[in-house]
Amino acid sequence: MAASPSSPASRRIRRLIGLSVTGAALVTVLTGCSIDDAFYFGWPRTQPSPQSRQMFDMWIGSAIAALAVGVFVWGLIFWCVIRYRKKGEDLPPQTRYNLPMELLFTVGPFVAIAILFYYTAIIQANVTRVDPNPDLDVTVTAFKWNWKFSYPETGSDPKIRDDKDVYTVGDSDVIPILVVPTGKNIRITELSADVIHSFWVPDLLFKRDVVPGVENQFQVTIDQEGAYVGRCAELCGTYHSMMNFEVRAVSPEKYDQYIQARVQGKTTQEALTLIGQEPYAIKTKPFDTDRQAERG
């Protein structure tokens, strides 16, 4: 005999459903996300490179798969709560084995893991691949607590990184800007002058440690013009939080004009102004390091 709407069992079920709906609503509201942001599951809405779009697609696919498994499990839980709720004092029939369910709970996770592993291996290989002959070489040198960006092809030998190359160095007053062309394979070589740092551009959905004595490399193609904030993602000392930079992606024509202006002796800011770009970083700004002012 089914429980009446006013029975204790029915009230418990309605209370459980109400709490679940309220909890889901609170999670949505407290995250402070818009409807559009909610479907990005915490990842940046901009993916300016093929590599970042591949990682984003995998993240969304994994999230959808996880939600599907969650909905299935929640459905089973609620179905069991409703279907097998206590209806009397008699002990219900006991089932010791259920071969179909045991096969489902064994094979299902294995298949899900195999699919995730397959796509992870493919995308990781694409993201970490470095071509032997890229369109552009850039050397990133991290130091406490800023960045130096060099363009080795502007010097006499791409393997020699010295002051003959065009370079940009950040300081406490000016955020360094790494200018790159769109649609080109860019190989970034990382060097550290002191401790471990990490080159991270959140919109690229990728970061790589900069390790002393180790020459790390990765490759990226940015196909959307714009300014992208960069940060150090490895705790490297007192002013780690101030190690910001900006990647400025421009058209290949403007990039060539920029490099030509730099070769002729113009500063980064002068060359950026010449090609119609903002001369200073627009996605981040220097931190106030005047600690004497705080004491006053």
UniProtKB/TrEMBL annotation:
The chain crosses the membrane at residues 56-82, 103-121. The keyword Glycoprotein does not apply. It is a multi-pass membrane protein. Its main location: membrane. Its EC number is 7.1.1.9. The keyword Transport applies. It holds the Pfam family COX2. One of its GO terms (molecular function) is cytochrome-c oxidase activity. GO terms for biological process: ATP synthesis coupled electron transport. Residues 133-261 form the Cytochrome oxidase subunit II copper A binding domain. It comes from the Bacteria. Keywords: Copper, Electron transport, Membrane, Metal-binding, Respiratory chain, Translocase, Transmembrane, Transmembrane helix, Transport. GO terms for cellular component: membrane. It is found in: Membrane. Subunits I and II form the functional core of the enzyme complex. Electrons originating in cytochrome c are transferred via heme a and Cu(A) to the binuclear center formed by heme a3 and Cu(B). Belongs to the cytochrome c oxidase subunit 2 family. This is cytochrome-c oxidase. It comes from Actinorhabdospora filicis. The lineage of its organism: Bacteria, Bacillati, Actinomycetota, Actinomycetes, Micromonosporales.
